[in-house]
Design a protein that fits this description.
Number of helices: 5
Helix content: under 10%
Number of domains: 2
Shape: globular
CATH superfamily of the largest domain: TonB-dependent receptor, beta-barrel domain
CATH topology of the largest domain: Maltoporin, Chain A
Largest sheet: 22 strands, antiparallel, barrel
Structural class: mainly beta
CATH architecture of the largest domain: Beta Barrel
Radius of gyration: 29 Å
Number of strands: 47
Distance between the termini: 49 Å
Strand content: over 45%
Length: about 800
């Protein structure tokens, strides 16, 4: 990046550095004589770190605090008052051990204790508890994927469709709590994909690869500022259990067409080394039925013509995914790791349609049979290098370096035939290869400020380089001829530098958290010309602050209140900036908009939580420069052109309520309802205002039958909804059911499920644009019977709960499969 782009960022970085020093000066109070920080390192008989051991701080045999050791075997205690203390250490498979007496303040700040194996040989502990389907945690909602029987054999996109507060539109756009513009990450790392490419990835990714999905509506400053509606983080499975462990899952599904998903998860941990290997193979045959009726109007509103377009899409896809990695515990304080992953998706199929032109009275004027063969190849490779280091009892450092490479290639073959004696026939084809290279690095620093405070700061820089070619040809005079009116070669480079600081402090019943993130963005785009089109280039540079924070008040043991606020951004991705034509069919094209600007939002939410049973929230968001799909109509050619533009403002008022109860000891219910009032104001050729009230309801019922079977009935329903100024979505919903039982002495699990029992999960809507309207309805192969078998091997131990969520994953792995 040229120096001219670095100067503004360096200036902002200097300002942020001053802010960090100021924050540290305010909150980092010096130690007093009466307080002491101390770390106890727990190792096993081989002097290896004891990850997940429980360390209890005792004074006069009274428990004061409990801490679980991290991957380095360290348990840290802060602000220990003057006096004499002991530590009680316990870990599965080892004898409980009490430390010597420590007198604080003392000269030592750390010590080591060695555990001895228990004389009792623990072969296996059966865990009967099941992880809940939905968990409410500070700042996020967690979906435990394997805890839901009906998730077996589904794709990640299908799991998202039925997750509380999540909706997916016909173009694969994802909304959270009624708000569009979500940043999707996998293992806390952005995918750098959107639209059709992101849809292709998530709809090809098996739910068996995923342990949890985190729905984060109001992220803190530590997270990327992208995503006006928040972040959806998909956490893939990774087992850190000691010894050799693994599981194998296979599922067979039957809708109109068959589907098959397979997953292998392996883990081996010994000494200072933990290594894992995951492999997934999916084979799916799919179909989509699309009906569209487009009407054209004159200036007086009278119908001049109609175009009826029923279409049938069918095809197959194969998905191979590998993820492997290694963690090496250099010392109790330092861990380094490497993760390698790769995905290969091959999707191909046919689109058969008939485009029939009708006069205003509905009489057939002409009909054209259209065919489209498409072949889509998606390849991705990624490498991650990471370092975790404990600087002291109160300081931690984390470093992540990532490199990603995407290779996307779409081939299309079009055939159009006029269905009349002597009618014409034309053929065309397109080849659209895309290469995306991304490199990023970040450093996160955490400082504990006494017993009730934490300071987090960090920097991140990412660089992406996109090369997108669209080559179209027409078959003329017995040979293929380049179509330079549609062909395009688009180059795009983007650099984002970020710096953040965040402080959390607890004062009695009150918890305050505040932070600010600064991101500086620069991009350059170059559209290479040809014999018909001239070269063109555009660039943009801008920097913005993104403050965020929350105030939480614990009124008593049952009631808590939280107020959150934050500013976020959605940047236009290269696909939406690239002005080339993507042909959908003979009468419908899609194109980008090089003048598209980023959209910004302010989000506020007030929530009340009653124990772990009921959560109620009221939210408000205001989006400026709102992205909306625009539909440009060329009545003379009968062409409809899809694009995106900044159309104005969107206001969203939301009310949601989530409940998690057990009406009976064999029945647990999790449900959420989200109501949104939206107002969209924009300009799409004329001033436009639209309002809508929409409601999304989801529910999951879990039943325990005869202490052996687990049954489920779940579903969701969404009323009329609107994400774009011009497009209204009609109601949709889904009802699913399933049952599971353990087999092979609880080493295996059988699951049977039926998704979309009533076959109601259609995408239906009505689009309005100048001098034309279009009704559409899309039906997929969504009613599917699925039989899933999971087998677990290796030793299984009951694990203690850990703050990173791996405990719930392990409990789920043992008890629920």
């Amino acid at each position: 990046m040229q120096n001219v782009y670095l100067i503004p960022f360096i200036k902002k970085t200097a300002c942020m550095g001053v802010l960090l020093l100021f924050c540290a000066g305010v909150y980092c109070q010096p130690k007093t004589e009466n307080a002491h920080n101390f770390s106890l390192v727990v190792v096993n008989e081989k002097l290896q770190p004891a990850d997940g051991a429980t360390v209890k701080l005792l004074k006069d045999n009274k428990l004061l605090k409990t801490v679980v050791t991290n991957a380095s075997g360290m348990a840290s205690f802060v602000s220990i008052q003057r006096g004499s203390y002991t530590f009680l250490v316990s870990s599965t498979g080892y004898k409980p051990q009490t430390s010597r007496v420590y007198h604080f303040p003392a000269d030592v700040i750390t010590d080591t204790i060695k555990l001895q194996p228990s004389t009792t040989n623990l072969q296996q502990v059966d865990v009967t508890a099941h992880a809940p389907v939905i968990e409410m945690k500070q700042g996020k909602m967690v979906v435990n994927v394997d805890a839901s029987v009906t998730n077996a054999g589904s794709t990640v996109l299908e799991v998202l469709e039925k997750s509380p507060g999540v909706t997916v539109d016909r173009n694969g756009g994802i909304s959270l709590q009624g708000k569009a513009g979500v940043l999707v990450t996998i293992d806390d790392k952005p995918t750098y994909l959107s639209g059709a490419d992101l849809n292709n990835l998530l709809s090809s990714m098996s739910s068996s690869q995923v342990s949890q999905i985190e729905l984060i509506a109001n992220p803190t400053a530590k997270y990327d500022a992208s995503g006006n509606a928040g972040i959806i983080n998909i956490k893939t499975k990774k087992n850190r259990q000691k010894g050799f462990n693994g599981s194998f899952t296979t599922s067979v599904g039957q809708g109109v067409y068959p589907k098959n998903n397979n997953s292998l998860v392996l883990n081996y941990r010994i000494g200072k080394i933990n290594t894992f290997f995951n492999y997934n193979f999916n084979y799916v045959e799919y179909l989509t039925n699309l009906y569209a009726l487009r009407k054209y109007y004159d200036d007086n509103g009278a119908v001049t013509a109609m175009l009826r377009q029923p279409s049938f899409f069918s095809g197959k896809f194969f998905n191979n995914t590998i993820k492997t990695g290694l963690d090496y515990y250099i010392s109790p304080k330092t861990t380094i790791g490497i993760v390698l992953s790769g995905t290969s998706i091959h999707r191909y199929g046919n689109n058969l349609a008939t485009a029939t032109w009708l006069d205003p009275a509905g009489t057939v004027d002409s009909a054209i049979a259209t065919g489209n063969k498409n072949d889509n190849k998606f390849k991705n490779g990624a490498i991650n290098l990471n370092l975790r280091h404990t600087l002291s009892a109160s300081q931690d450092l984390a470093v992540d370096l990532d490199y990603l490479h995407y290779s996307l290639n779409t081939k299309q073959d079009f055939n159009n035939e006029l269905l009349t004696p002597g009618g014409y026939q034309d053929e065309s084809r397109g080849n659209i290869p895309t290469t995306i290279k991304i490199a990023s690095g970040k450093v996160d620093y955490t400082l504990k400020l006494g017993e009730n405070g934490t300071l987090q700061s960090g920097v991140k820089s990412s660089y992406s380089n996109t090369d997108n070619l669209a080559a179209y040809q027409n078959f003329e005079g017995g040979q293929w001829v380049d179509d330079n009116t549609k062909s395009n070669h688009f180059l795009y480079k983007e650099n984002i530098n970020a710096l953040y600081s965040s402080i959390e402090k607890k004062y009695g019943k009150l918890t305050l958290q505040g932070g600010v993130r600064y991101e500086y963005t620069s991009y350059k785009a170059n559209q290479l010309g040809n014999a018909v089109q001239k070269d063109s280039a555009f660039s943009r540079n801008y920097g913005e602050f993104f403050p965020s924070g929350y105030v939480s008040y614990q009124a008593d043991s049952s009631h808590s209140f939280t107020l959150t606020a934050g500013r976020r951004i959605d940047r236009p991705v290269f696909q939406n900036l690239n002005p080339f034509y993507f042909i959908i069919n003979k009468y419908t094209y899609e194109t980008g908009n090089p003048y598209l600007l980023p959209q910004f939002s302010w989000n506020f939410e007030l929530s009340h939580q009653y124990k772990n049973l009921l959560t109620t929230s009221v939210s408000y968001s205001n989006i400026q420069n709102y992205f909306s799909q625009l539909f440009l109509n060329d009545a003379a050619k009968g062409i409809l052109l899809y694009t995106q533009g900044n159309v104005g403002h969107t206001y969203n008022i939301g009310v949601s309520q989530a409940v998690s109860v057990s009406p009976l000891n064999w029945w647990s219910l999790t449900a959420q309802a989200t109501f949104n009032h939206k107002q969209l104001r924009g300009f799409n050729g004329n001033n436009y205002t639209s309002e809508i009230n929409q409601l999304n309801i989801s529910a999951n019922n879990q039943f325990t039958i005869a202490k052996t079977y687990t049954a489920e009935i779940s579903g969701f329903y969404t009323t009329r909804a609107r994400n774009d100024v011009q497009e209204l979505l009609y109601p949709t919903g889904q009802l699913s059911a399933g049952i599971a039982r353990p087999v092979l002495k609880k080493k295996g699990t059988l699951k049977f499920s039926l998704r979309d029992i009533l076959y109601t999960n259609a995408m239906e809507g009505f689009t309005s644009f100048p001098n034309a309207t279009e009704y559409f309805k899309i039906k997929r192969d969504s009613r599917v019977f699925t039989l899933t078998f999971t087998y677990r091997f290796g030793k299984t131990y009951k694990t203690v709960k850990r703050t990173d969520g791996s405990a719930s994953e392990e409990m789920e792995r043992v008890g629920n499969g």
